[in-house]
UniProtKB/TrEMBL annotation:
Signal peptide: none annotated. The lineage of its organism: Bacteria, Thermotogati, Deinococcota, Deinococci, Thermales. Cu cation binds at residues 72, 76, 155. Residues 35-192 form the Thioredoxin domain. Transmembrane segments: none annotated. This is Electron transport protein SCO1/SenC. Keywords: Copper, Disulfide bond, Metal-binding. Disulfide bonds join 72-76.
Length: 197
C-alpha cells in the first residue's frame, strides 16, 4: 500500500514537472518569418558616435537590426518609432538591443546616424561607415538598396531578429512592425525564454 502511494506521488511529481516545463520546451509560435535553419548573422565592425561597434559586442542579447537612413521620408522613421514603442511596452529590457544601420553613408556620418537612432530611443544605436563596408553588411543581411538622383533610397524595410548566440532567427516585414501587437507578443515570448528558441 505504501509502495503504491510512493509511486502515485512520484508520478504526480513527474506530471507536474512536465507541465511546468512544457511551455518552455515546445517551439515558439511566432508571427514573424522564422528561419528553420538559422544562420550566423554577418559579423561587422561599423562606427557609432561613441566609436567602433561590432555585432559581437551584443552577444548574449536579442538584437533587432534595421537598415535605413536619416534623410528617409517615410519607412525609416515609422519603423524606428514602432520599434521604440514596442521597446517601451516591453519595459525597456536590457537583454534587447536595436541597431539602425545607415544605407546612406555618404550623408549619414556615424554621429548623424547615431543621433538619428537616439531620437527614437536613447538606447538605440545608429551605425554608419565606409560605403564598401555598408554595402557588404547590407548584402550579408540580404538588404536591397537602390538610390535615385533625388537622393531617395529604395530599400528593404525588414527588421531582422538575431538571437543571443548571433544567429538570424526571425524576419519582420513592414506590416508586422506596424501592427506592433504581433511583434510585441513575439518579443515577450522570446525574452521570457532568454532568447532560446
Amino acid at each position: 500500500m505504501q509502495r503504491n502511494l510512493i509511486l502515485a506521488l512520484l508520478l504526480l511529481a513527474a506530471v507536474g514537472a512536465a507541465w511546468a516545463l512544457w511551455p518552455r520546451t515546445r517551439p515558439l509560435e511566432l508571427s514573424g518569418t522564422v528561419l528553420k535553419n538559422p544562420r550566423p548573422a554577418p559579423e561587422f565592425r561599423l562606427e557609432s558616435a561613441s566609436g567602433p561597434v561590432s555585432l559581437a559586442d551584443f552577444r548574449g542579447k536579442v538584437v533587432l537590426v534595421f537598415f535605413g537612413y536619416a534623410h528617409c521620408p517615410d519607412v525609416c522613421p515609422l519603423t524606428l518609432n514602432h520599434l521604440a514603442h514596442i521597446y517601451r511596452e516591453l519595459g525597456e529590457p536590457e537583454q534587447l538591443q536595436v541597431l539602425a544601420i545607415s544605407i546612406d553613408p555618404e550623408r549619414d556620418t556615424p554621429e548623424a546616424m547615431d543621433r538619428y537612432a537616439k531620437m527614437f530611443h536613447p538606447s538605440f544605436v545608429g551605425l554608419s561607415g565606409p560605403p564598401k563596408a555598408i554595402a557588404k553588411v547590407a548584402a550579408g543581411f540580404f538588404v536591397y538598396v537602390r538610390s535615385d538622383a533625388s537622393g531617395y533610397i529604395d530599400h528593404t524595410s525588414t527588421v531582422t531578429l538575431i538571437d543571443p548566440e548571433g544567429r538570424i532567427r526571425v524576419l519582420y516585414g513592414q506590416q508586422l512592425v506596424e501592427d506592433e501587437t504581433a511583434m510585441l507578443r513575439d518579443l515577450r515570448a522570446i525574452l521570457e525564454r532568454k532568447g532560446r528558441f
